[in-house]
Amino acid sequence: MGLQEAMNTRIGGWSLKGLSGGQKRRVSICIEILTRPKLLFLDEPTSGLDSAASYHVMNRIIKIAQEDMRTIVASIHQPSSEVFELFDNLCLLSYGKTIYFGSSSKANEFFAANGFPCPYMRNPSDHYLRTINKDFDDIEEGFGKNIISSGKAIDTLVKSYESSEACLNVRQRVLTICQKNGRLLENKGSQAGFITQCKVLTQRSFLNMYRDLGYYWLRFLIYLALCLCIGTVFHEIGSDYGSIQARSSMLVFVVGFLTFMAIGGFPSFVEEMKLFTRERLNGHYGVGAFVIGNTLSSTPFLLLISLVPGAVAYYLADVQKGIDHFAYFFLMLFACMMLVESLMMIVASIVPDFLMGIITGAGIQGIMMLNGGFFRLPKDLPMPIWKYPVYYLAFHKYAIQGFYKNEYETFTYFTDGGLAIIVTRDEILRDIFQVELNYSKWGDIAIVFGMADFLFLVGW
Known about the structure:
Elements: H1 21-33, E1 39-43, H2 51-68, E2 71-75, H3 81-84, E3 89-94, E4 97-103, H4 107-113, H5 124-132, E5 139-141, E6 147-149, H6 150-162, H7 165-179, H8 194-211, H9 213-233, H10 243-260, H11 266-281, H12 287-316, H13 323-350, H14 354-370, H15 386-393, H16 395-407, E7 412-416, E8 419-423, H17 425-432, H18 441-459
Parallel strand pairs: 1-2
Antiparallel strand pairs: 3-4, 5-6, 7-8
Helix pairs in contact: 8-12, 9-12, 10-13, 10-16, 11-13, 12-13, 13-14, 13-16, 13-18, 16-18
């Protein structure tokens, strides 16, 4: 395909120019012919190519078809005369009507017999398209320089074809093929095993995420800046009774808004879904391999985003110190990140539109955040919808309760007006925040991981 000099060049994207449009088109053709299908459909394979490149590309494709006895059906955008001569058969359509279907070499004879011969030194394909195109209501010249409208020319050609020998031969050929008891071609799918598919897809997805600055790196910098703001805002909040509200606000902000910003990866999800849809239809791999590969490749980036910005926010803010408390904080934040990534993957598969997908994902998270038990205490939530089932389906509920239990796990000493007051863990959790105490904080994190796994299986 003439891509030897571009073999070490990246495909490119919004942050990198990469290959030209014509080179990308040739790469896509190469991907399609790698598996050597029995029947290959090409939609305008020469679009974006100059006349020389178009000829060489189509010439190589036809050689492959002849060597391997393949059938290739292609729609062609403005072919040159050299490219047009490479085709064995030609099908001309106009507004759903068949104008001609037969040998390419006999098309000019058909048009000439009906009063529309191809002028000397004119590209036959240009002449045919001009004759059967009535978008601009062009006029055509027939024998004797008669002027007629394009609509009348099309009607004349359609009627002539329906009564022609070429149309009769096509119908007989179709009837003969339908009467044959040929065996069905086996759809063997990908020649690679499931493990190989997962491995290759993981490597490709990881490389794509690593190279794309907007995929996770920009999000990492924004998270880092935001966590720096969180740490400085909630720095030295003290240990008086009023600090309970400040601590809870900091934890809820982390659960709500840091996970909410995961919708920033939705545009990349949409692009991956487009690629996945095309490659899956071509039988390269299945849904399971794609989901596993995408999840494994994103896990290191989510770990990094959860660890570094999370550590900045946690150790700058005046909250419970200790490696065990931070480890729980980090794991819960990572679980929420994984859950939202799986949720946005599902949204991308259902709502592929960029704007509508972001609105849908933001709306789902907004509803769960509103009913997570902070903005309105659990006992005050209206029933039956908001308390049952939304409150129990929202992952914010379990993340917030887990953070509360982790923060107020031991006796906490507060001072109120110079008077020392001992407030127990149960008093804070049960009386102030109405947290469920019938299971530990590890039960909350297990539930969040379980919800993430469930969404992962739904995406599968």
